[in-house]
Amino acid sequence: MKAEVINPFLESARLVIEQVIQVSPSTGNLGVKEISLIENHIWIQIGMTGQMCGNIVFGIQEQVALRMVSIMMGGYVLTEMDEMGQSAISELGNMISGNASTILSNQGVIVDITPPKVIRSVNITEFAKKKALSIPLTMDGIGELDIQVMIS
What we know:
Number of strands: 8
Largest sheet: 8 strands, antiparallel
Number of helices: 3
Shape: globular
Distance between the termini: 6 Å
Helix content: 25-40%
Order of helices and strands: HEEEEHHEEEE
Strand content: 25-35%
């Protein structure tokens, strides 16, 4: 997997987070990470087909996701990740991936994305470990969103 495949998702995530969460995230170090089950985590999985195939996964601690959703909902405080919260965090993943697919299209790479799937650690009984190209985005006062790309 080439490291540059993560760039459209990184660029898109920074832009969408700035617009929706109203904070400028800082970028951590790029690396290869084994995706594993982590307690109190949420993953937003988006499939990709076309000239690039695979999955993009956004990993977020549940408390960080709750803070992000609260900001997205105009300051309405959520204490648990209910159906509305899952819908909002899912939409954030959709916005990032949709924008990234537009960036890829402008570069001549034709892709299509699947609707986002929210996966919560509390609902998982089995988890297949996979390796992903990973880069964290840190949002001051909010927490971290981990972009994990598994694309061929």
